[in-house]
């Protein structure tokens, strides 16, 4: 249905395709045969996705004469650790997986990040194909080659940039998506609607989550638009020297919140609160007008329910802690934290001049809400 090309400057060798097509999961064996990425495939997935799609994918590969192995780890952000990666690597060594084999990362953001990390480090790197099963992974995490695990100090602080051979998106898989996962996906989609000019903001405004869940054509259109935006950004700045930072709108605070809540908050809710925070800072600093702030706020509230967690954070003590966690953000350069500041809907700026006081100054606006 749609093919989006990710192109890098230095030539075609690392370019890859994002394929978006309903029922693509069924065509994976034929796709792999056509492209000959590897001799054998290790499907890495989590305990939930294994039952839904992993076992049947392996069966289909076997039926097509493709040798594969299915490796599963328990579902959840808490599993995204070096220890889980090591367990997977040891299993692969036992199976004598070699550099002529490849990994299929079948799952959401956790699977994609973890399997990508294993692929990038196993014997100094074997090929990986991303097959995202959640909306968040389809529109964001599976594209762009970010891999990683969480460590004690914070989220994704250990990882690599390692591009996949292909990203295979089957939007029909969303029929099994749990409701909190829809929120996760839409938080990222809202992010795209603010960071660059596109029809997305208007489209999201004109519909509701319940509607979009059932309007497959519209949802597919949204997925394609997000993938196009992301492909264009990472093609220009693969390793986040500057431009790619815009994909982190709401994430600097969001990641710190995930750490603060010990990952009991979903990524989508954390990013949604993060976007609201930075919007308030932008208004305080006269960079965003109140009308745009309200329009973004309304859109966020329409798709992501943040109230339970928001009630717990608006105290000075929590703000100090969140600021402390942000010191470890991957966008810190020369001790300065980089924030993605919205100037208007469709236009953001990358800034490193926001101070701890600017952050603390947001507190009264939330308390008065
Ligand atoms: N999810 C942000 C990025 O890929 O850069």
| CATH-level-2 architecture of the largest domain | 3-Layer(aba) Sandwich
N-to-C terminal Cα separation, in Å? 45 Å
Which CATH class of the largest domain? Alpha Beta
Low-pLDDT residue spans: none
Integer-rounded radius of gyration: 20 Å
Structural class: alpha/beta
Provide the number of structural domains: 2
Content of β-strand? 15-25%
The major sheet is characterized as:
7 strands, mixed
What overall form do the CA principal axes indicate? globular
Tally of strands: 11
- Counting copies of identical and different chains, the oligomeric state is single chain
- Average pLDDT confidence is 95
Strand order of the largest sheet: 1-2-9-6-5-3-4
Annotation field: number of helices: 16
What level of helicity do the residues show?
Answer: 40-55%
What ligands does this structure carry? glycine
- Compressed to H and E, one letter per element, the order equals EEHEHEHEHEHEEEHHHHHHHHHEEHH
If you consult CATH, what is the topology of the largest domain? Rossmann fold
Mind sketching the topology for me?
Layout: E1 2-6, E2 16-20, H1 24-35, E3 41-46, H2 47-63, E4 68-73, H3 82-94, E5 102-107, H4 109-121, E6 127-132, H5 135-141, E7 149-151, E8 154-158, E9 166-169, H6 179-195, H7 200-205, H8 209-214, H9 216-236, H10 251-260, H11 267-284, H12 290-303, H13 307-310, H14 316-326, E10 339-344, E11 347-351, H15 356-360, H16 363-367
Parallel strand pairs: 2-9, 3-4, 3-5, 5-6, 6-9
Antiparallel strand pairs: 1-2, 7-8, 10-11
This protein binds glycine.
């Amino acid at each position: 249905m749609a093919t989006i090309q990710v192109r890098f400057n230095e030539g075609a060798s690392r370019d890859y395709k994002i394929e978006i097509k309903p029922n693509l999961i069924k065509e994976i064996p034929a796709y792999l045969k056509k492209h000959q990425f590897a001799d054998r495939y290790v499907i890495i997935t989590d305990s939930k996705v294994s039952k839904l799609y992993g076992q049947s994918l392996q069966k289909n590969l076997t039926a097509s004469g493709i040798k594969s192995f299915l490796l599963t780890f328990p579902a959840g952000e808490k599993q995204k650790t070096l220890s889980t990666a090591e367990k997977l690597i040891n299993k692969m060594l036992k199976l004598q997986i070699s550099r002529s084999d490849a990994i299929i990362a079948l799952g959401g953001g956790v699977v994609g990040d973890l399997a990508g990390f294993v692929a990038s480090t196993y014997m100094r790197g074997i090929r990986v194909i991303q097959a995202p099963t959640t909306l968040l992974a389809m529109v964001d995490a599976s594209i762009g080659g970010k891999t990683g695990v969480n460590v004690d100090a914070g989220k994704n602080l250990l990882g690599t940039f390692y591009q996949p051979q292909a990203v295979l998106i089957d939007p029909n898989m969303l029929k099994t998506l749990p409701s909190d996962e829809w929120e996760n996906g839409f938080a990222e989609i809202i992010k795209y609607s603010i960071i660059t000019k596109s029809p997305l903001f208007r489209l999201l405004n004109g519909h509701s989550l319940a509607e979009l869940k059932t309007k497959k054509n519209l949802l597919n259109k949204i997925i394609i638009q997000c993938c196009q935006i992301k492909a264009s950004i990472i093609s220009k700045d693969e390793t986040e020297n500057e431009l790619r930072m815009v994909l982190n709108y709401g994430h600097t605070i969001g990641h710190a919140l995930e750490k603060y809540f010990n990952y009991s908050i979903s990524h989508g809710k954390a990013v949604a609160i993060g976007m609201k925070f930075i919007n308030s800072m932008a208004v305080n600093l006269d960079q965003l007008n109140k009308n745009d702030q309200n329009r973004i706020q309304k859109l966020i509230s329409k798709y992501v329910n943040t109230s339970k967690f928001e009630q717990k954070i608006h105290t000075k003590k929590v703000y100090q802690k969140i600021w402390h966690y942000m010191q470890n953000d991957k966008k810190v350069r020369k001790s300065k934290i980089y924030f993605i500041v919205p100037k208007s809907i469709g236009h953001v700026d990358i800034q490193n001049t926001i101070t701890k006081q600017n952050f603390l100054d947001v507190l009264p606006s939330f308390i008065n809400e």
